[in-house]
Fold this protein.
Amino acid sequence: MQPRFSVHSANLDAQPHVPPRIPMTRWRPPAPRSTAIITREGFETLKRELDHLWHTLRPEVVKALAAAAAEGDRSENAEYTYRKKQLGEIDRRVRYLSKRIPSLKVAEGAPADRETVFFGAVIELENTQSGETVRYRIVGPDETDAKRGWISIDSPLARAVLKKKLDDEFEADLPGGRTRFAVIGVEYVEP
């Protein structure tokens, strides 16, 4: 039996194989799912927001939309266009909260080891290079608030500090580069 291809029968002048061009698309891989954990006060805040959107704000916008639609020509009616967009935003948020709230797990109480950093901890950190101290509370991704110093459990700093004890040192990959911190305070807020 002879081989199907031989060195002698190959066309040595042929161009190397070039893979076909794949067109670029706008597709992006889905974002990683956020952690479904929340504090009791954050859970109650989300429930109040859903209730306010559904029972107070949405009916007002629907009424204003109906009034704008009654004015006539909708193609040049800025109020109608604005209200349609506003209603879409409200409905999108209501849909998100309606799916998100049932999937959340409420973290109740403080852990037995109150010197170790877990979810819900208020931590005080010292930057070992600059000596600057910062204070954060580790909360769920749905309740982050930079002004209050509440950081998501999914943030790089929170992931790096979890399970560290008082006086432990650790490194975190932050947007400004790799930074070394020391845990100088850990406390838990009682509801």
About this structure: The chain has two domains: 37-107, 121-188.
